[in-house]
Every structure is written in structure tokens, then in C-alpha cells.
């Protein structure tokens, strides 16, 4: 099963709306728990005089994982026929936001859980906001505890309508709303007989329908220049292909200078012979048909690609500097091989990473908080929106000599957008 596909998901929702129960159910129903876990947890519950809860399975599972040395305790796994799943744990928003923005953990899809009986709470809204902040677009909303409202179609539709309205303002468009009872296992592995009015898929079937992102090889070419070497009178442009592929003869564009030429040769350092093509993840040297003055930090893309050079853009930022992040101070921004001076042009939102309280139009961002900002660079740079390319859509901010923040590019900005 070495080349099975893995999808990383995150489960978010207001406390007590059923996060752990859903995860416990998924682990249980896909037989992903170690032998005997269920029996043991049932026995312990009985001894304590408490009714059995699927949520306890999660604690027991984590406990068992901790005892094994080889298994990563922060990542729960389960498997379907189709592929493997990893649940990115979100122990507190702070760690989750930090890990997601810095790239330490990356969820491709999300399940947002809402208690049907309690409806949408402030936290549900904030979690919706987190998804938008992180650019997670593959989202299912699970309307849980349907048993408590008599499996009512009407209430389900009401919640769906309200949530849809709220999320669409954040540009999050859930792909599905699934009515479930995690506790009773309704609509988890198969369609529930309690909700014949629901014509969609069960949770597990729906999970397998999340489409995996295209691999880096399938994306547009991004080849940031690391170094330029002179070699036997030739200029060899060296770097790592972050995404896409290139071939001898390809017409390419060098950004931001916007010069166009063709690739003459591709050289790899290890073997002596020339190559005809290279793709994402490979470190190569290339030569051009025309010689220009090239330098570190420039991006090589295919000639038809023109849209990613800018000096102003929107970003989601995690700040960990000792000093607060402030507007209009000079920082350094590093994005792959580019290094450029920048300033924070506006702080549209500063968010307390623990409580998710938000301040609009803030003047500063505190240590360990998150912000939605507009960044302005002194020179034009090449960027991608994070949702399109995780390698060229992520950057760090340096204050003095210290890395003080990590960010992801959430969108292009222009001055007009900034002021509205
Ligand atoms: P979390 O805080 O979001 O992880 O929520 P839990 O999974 O711990 O669930 C909170 C409580 O809700 C527990 O007592 C669960 O048994 C209960 N619960 C979860 N799902 C359901 C459900 O579908 N129906 C009912 N009636 N209770 C549920």
C-alpha cells in the first residue's frame, strides 16, 4: 500500500458540538483502532459508572499512540478503501493556526461541525473564518446531533441556509452539508434510514469524494533562481523547481524583469549528461538561448504566465516576534529565494489566536496572534496565492535578524481594495 493516496483533514467546531465523537466514530467504523481498544474503553466506562462515549475512544487512541515510539501522536489516521486519511489535530486554535500558516501541518480539507440543537454559535462562525483565513476551500459542514431534533429536515435546512449565508461572505462555499448523528452512527458509514429526506452521501462516502489537490508537478512552472554560475563561458542558472516542469526548447519568461527566451539546456549536477526535461522537486541548472543578466530571486515561469508580479498583496500572518508587529515599519520578507524589504500597509484584522476575538483595522499585532494584513514590498516580487501553490504562496517576515512571522498569500491587492 506504499503509493496509496493520503488526504489530510481537520475537524473544527464549537466545543461539545461533537468533534471527538465524530472522530471516534470515524476511527471505529473504519476499524482503524488497535485491537481491544473499544472493549477496554467500554469496560473502563462501566467501572466508572459512566455510559460509553465514542469521544473516549479518541483519548484512548492517543494514549496508546503515545506508548508506541514510532507513531506521531498528533496525527490520527484512518483508512477507507479509496485512500488514507490523516486528521490534523487542532489542540487549541493557537497551535493549529501557527502550524497551518508556517507549514508544519497542512490540512487540505475540513469538516465543520454544528450541533443541530444549539445551532450556529459564535465559535462556529469563528471556525468558518479560520477556514477562510487559511484558504481551505474543501469544506463539508456536518450538522450533528440530528437525533435531538427528531431528524427534522426543516431545522437542517434552516441551519444550512444561515451558515451558507455567513460563509459565502467569507468566500467559503461548503461543498456539502451532511445531517448526522455521530452518537447514533446515522449517515456516518451508510445512508441513514432515520433521514429518508436526505438524498446526499453518508460522511464516509462523501469524504472519498474530496478531490485531492493537483500535485506540484501538475501546476504551472515556478523555478526561482538560487544562483547564477559562469562555467566555460556559459551562464548556468541554478535552482530548485518548486512546481511544474520544464523542457529544453520551452519558451520561458523571467520575472519580474519580464524577458522572454527559450531553454537551451538542462544540466544536473550529479550526472554528467544533459537532460531534456526536469520537474518539481529537482535541483537543476539551465542555460538560455539568449544571455541576460540574471540574479538570485528572479522567477522563471512559462512565457504565457504573466500574472504574478506585484508589490502589494493580502496575507494571513502568524506573528511570533518579541516586539509587536506594527504598520509602516521596515521588515524583510523572504519568499523562496526572494528577499525584499517590506512594510505592513494595513492590518485589516488582528485576531487573538486563542480566543479568536477580532479587532478590525488594528495598529499592531501581538506576539502569537494572527492577522489579516496588506503587505507592500519595496520592489516587485513574484508570488502566488497560497491556495494555488503552497511553495510560492508562503513567506516569512524578518525583523532585524530574527524570523518573526510566517504568512500565506491570501490574495492580490491593489490600492483601491486596500482603502475599502
Ligand atoms: P467536542 O467537544 O466537540 O469534541 O464534543 P464531544 O464529541 O465530546 O461531544 C460532546 C457531547 O455531545 C458528548 O456527551 C457526546 O456524547 C454528545 N454527542 C456527540 N454527538 C452526538 C449526537 O449525535 N447526538 C447526541 N444526542 N449527542 C451527541
TrEMBL record:
GO BP of this protein: sulfur compound metabolic process
Q: What keywords are assigned to this protein?
A: ATP-binding, GTP-binding, Nucleotide-binding, Nucleotidyltransferase, Transferase
Leader sequence segment: none
What residues does the Tr-type G domain cover?
A: 4-221
Q: Molecular function terms in GO for this entry?
A: ATP binding; GTP binding; GTPase activity; sulfate adenylyltransferase (ATP) activity
Which EC numbers characterise this protein's activity in its record?
A: 2.7.7.4
> By what name is this protein known?
sulfate adenylyltransferase
Q: Which organism is it from?
A: Anaerosporomusa subterranea
Lineage per the UniProt record: Bacteria, Bacillati, Bacillota, Negativicutes, Acetonemataceae
Amino acid at each position: 500500500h506504499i503509493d496509496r493516496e493520503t488526504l489530510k483533514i481537520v475537524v473544527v467546531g464549537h466545543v461539545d458540538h461533537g468533534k471527538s465523537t465524530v472522530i471516534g466514530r470515524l476511527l471505529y467504523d473504519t476499524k482503524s483502532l488497535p485491537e481491544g481498544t473499544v472493549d477496554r474503553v467500554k469496560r473502563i466506562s462501566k467501572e466508572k459508572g459512566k455510559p460509553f462515549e465514542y469521544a473516549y475512544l479518541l483519548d484512548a487512541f492517543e494514549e496508546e499512540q503515545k506508548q508506541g515510539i514510532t507513531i506521531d501522536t498528533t496525527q490520527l489516521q484512518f483508512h477507507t478503501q479509496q485512500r488514507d486519511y490523516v486528521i490534523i489535530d487542532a489542540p487549541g486554535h493557537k497551535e493549529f493556526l501557527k502550524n497551518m500558516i508556517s507549514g508544519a501541518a497542512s490540512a487540505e480539507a475540513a469538516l465543520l461541525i454544528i450541533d443541530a440543537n444549539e445551532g450556529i454559535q459564535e465559535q462556529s462562525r469563528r471556525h468558518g473564518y479560520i477556514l477562510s483565513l487559511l484558504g481551505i476551500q474543501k469544506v463539508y459542514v456536518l450538522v450533528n446531533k440530528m437525533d435531538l431534533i427528531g431528524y427534522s429536515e426543516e431545522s437542517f435546512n434552516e441551519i444550512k441556509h444561515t451558515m451558507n449565508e455567513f460563509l459565502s461572505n467569507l468566500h467559503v462555499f461548503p461543498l456539502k452539508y451532511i445531517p448526522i448523528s455521530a452518537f447514533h452512527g446515522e449517515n456516518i458509514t451508510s445512508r441513514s434510514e432515520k433521514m429518508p429526506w436526505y438524498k446526499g452521501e453518508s460522511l464516509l462516502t462523501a469524504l472519498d469524494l474530496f478531490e485531492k489537490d493537483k500535485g506540484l508537478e501538475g501546476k504551472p512552472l515556478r523555478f526561482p533562481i538560487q544562483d547564477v554560475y559562469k562555467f566555460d563561458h556559459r551562464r548556468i542558472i541554478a535552482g530548485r523547481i518548486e512546481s511544474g516542469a520544464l523542457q529544453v526548447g520551452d519558451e520561458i519568461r523571467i520575472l519580474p524583469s519580464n524577458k522572454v527566451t527559450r531553454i537551451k539546456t538542462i544540466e544536473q549536477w550529479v550526472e554528467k549528461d544533459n537532460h531534456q526535461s526536469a520537474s518539481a522537486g529537482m535541483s537543476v541548472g539551465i542555460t538560455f538561448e539568449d544571455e541576460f543578466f540574471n540574479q538570485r530571486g528572479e522567477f522563471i515561469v512559462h512565457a504565457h504566465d504573466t500574472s504574478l508580479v506585484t508589490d502589494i498583496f493580502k496575507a494571513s500572518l502568524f506573528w511570533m516576534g518579541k516586539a509587536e508587529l506594527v504598520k509602516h515599519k521596515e521588515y524583510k520578507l523572504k519568499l523562496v529565494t526572494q528577499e525584499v524589504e517590506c512594510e505592513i500597509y494595513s492590518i485589516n484584522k488582528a485576531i487573538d489566536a486563542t480566543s479568536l476575538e477580532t479587532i478590525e483595522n488594528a495598529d499592531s499585532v501581538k506576539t502569537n496572534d494572527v492577522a489579516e494584513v496588506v503587505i507592500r514590498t519595496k520592489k516587485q516580487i513574484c508570488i502566488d496565492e497560497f491556495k494555488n501553490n503552497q511553495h510560492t504562496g508562503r513567506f516569512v517576515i524578518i525583523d532585524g535578524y530574527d524570523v518573526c512571522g510566517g504568512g500565506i498569500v491570501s490574495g492580490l491587492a491593489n490600492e483601491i481594495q486596500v482603502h475599502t
